[in-house]
Inverse folding.
């Protein structure tokens, strides 16, 4: 039996596959962590306004469905939601009146809401962009997460509330977008909601997330 | 009879020497191609890492909760996951250039970079072209099994994501069962032609090595003959003197 020291060349040959396996595991773990983060939805929000809130400063369009998208002006994830909204508007501009409301936190200069996200939303034909000072409108519509969409039909009844992306900041089709498309086509949607992926509109986001889960 | 056998033996030995010389030249050329491509990929992997960090810190620097901000997970992913993807293949390229393991690890790493960049750019369809660009670059090795490693890595990654998170691969949440095949077929399409190109390239390298070996043998033979002539002439001149 050979009990002598392992030849350096042999140890190098054994070492490389072990290092390779460790490398593969580390990379797989990294992608898993990223995947968990990207697919973790934000807070669903509080009580949904079944009918258009009368005190809202935005008016529901009687001739078209009205869509509101709430956004944190600096949320990178919401860029994907704006991109998805652009896709929806390109297809349904004749049936949809869309508003993007960018949060202007109380005590902050309102002009700070005019970010790249504002410009992107403004470039979409048929979309009205406005500030939501202090998140008043978000509270009226029970929205807590950036990228949340509420869709009201021509009778000002809530038809859908939720997100329109498949994950945090990820472009592409999603259940939310598919359901809105179905509703705008006059078809039946399997559900009237979808997970919302984005930053919390208010500071106590994580606490609210726990509360939402507890419910 | 023995004279002709000796002549045949000499010719065979000369031909074997040319074949051996051609093989040596081919192997040296192949090793040079592998080492230089390893070096290029080492630079590319580091460049991609830096690009990803700049991209993440520019496009998605922070996650927000009202007025509170924290470093976005994309930034950590670019630094840590990007660093992990880059470190091992770059170390291999520096420590074991030209080794088969090095180029196969580099192929896997390059495909991991495609996946990470797709994440960091929010699933933009344009970033998916990184996969095809990477496969074309891997063909620089002229070693077709490297392309199979790259294809296998991206296929497994797509297959797993297609099961766990289909929207991120196919753009729709409930794709038909054959959508995986549709994506795979486009990768197979490019890989098929790249494999052909690699094999042709190896064949050309072999032809070049053979021609080089023949030229070398001829010139050596010529030198030997001319040396004999020169030597005879020199001896004659010395005898006359």
């Amino acid at each position: 039996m050979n009990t002598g020291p392992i030849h350096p060349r042999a140890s190098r040959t054994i070492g490389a596959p072990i290092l390779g396996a460790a490398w593969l595991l580390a990379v797989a773990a990294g992608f898993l962590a990223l995947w968990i983060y990207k697919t973790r939805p934000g807070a669903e929000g509080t009580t949904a306004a079944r009918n258009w809130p009368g005190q809202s400063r935005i008016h529901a369009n009687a001739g078209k469905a009205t869509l509101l998208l709430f956004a944190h002006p600096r949320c990178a994830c919401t860029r994907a939601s704006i991109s998805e909204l652009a896709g929806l508007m390109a297809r349904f501009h004749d049936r949809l009146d869309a508003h993007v409301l960018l949060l202007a936190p109380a005590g902050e200069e309102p002009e700070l809401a005019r970010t790249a996200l504002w410009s992107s939303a403004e470039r979409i034909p048929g979309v009205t962009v406005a500030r939501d000072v202090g998140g008043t409108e978000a509270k009226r519509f029970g929205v807590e997460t950036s990228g949340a969409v509420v869709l009201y039909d021509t009778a000002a009844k809530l038809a859908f509330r939720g997100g329109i992306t498949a994950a945090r900041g990820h472009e592409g089709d999603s259940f939310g977008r598919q359901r809105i498309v179905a509703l705008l086509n006059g078809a039946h949607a399997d559900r009237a909601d979808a997970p919302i992926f984005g930053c919390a509109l208010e500071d106590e986001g994580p606490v609210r997330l726990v509360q939402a889960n507890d419910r | 009879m023995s004279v002709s056998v000796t002549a045949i033996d000499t010719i065979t030995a000369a031909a074997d020497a040319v074949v051996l010389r051609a093989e040596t030249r081919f192997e040296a050329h192949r090793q040079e191609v592998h080492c230089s491509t390893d070096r290029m990929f080492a630079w590319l992997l580091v460049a991609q890492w830096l690009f990803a960090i700049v991209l993440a810190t520019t496009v998605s620097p922070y996650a927000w909760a009202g007025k509170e901000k924290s470093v976005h997970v994309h930034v950590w992913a670019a630094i840590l996951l990007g660093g992990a993807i880059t470190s091992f293949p770059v170390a291999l390229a520096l420590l074991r250039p030209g080794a088969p393991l090095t180029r196969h690890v580099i192929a896997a790493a390059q495909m991991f970079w495609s996946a990470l960049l797709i994440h960091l750019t929010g699933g933009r369809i344009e970033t998916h072209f990184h996969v095809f660009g990477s496969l074309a670059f891997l063909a620089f090795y002229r070693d077709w099994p490297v392309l199979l490693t790259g294809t296998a890595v991206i296929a497994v990654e797509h297959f797993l994501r297609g099961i766990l998170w289909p929207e991120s691969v196919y753009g729709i949440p409930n794709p038909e069962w054959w959508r995986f095949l549709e994506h795979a077929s486009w990768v197979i399409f490019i890989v098929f032609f790249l494999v052909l190109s690699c094999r042709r390239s190896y064949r050309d390298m072999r032809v070049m090595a053979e021609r080089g070996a023949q030229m070398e043998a001829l010139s050596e033979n010529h030198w030997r003959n001319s040396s004999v002539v020169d030597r005879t002439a020199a001896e004659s001149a010395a005898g006359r003197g």
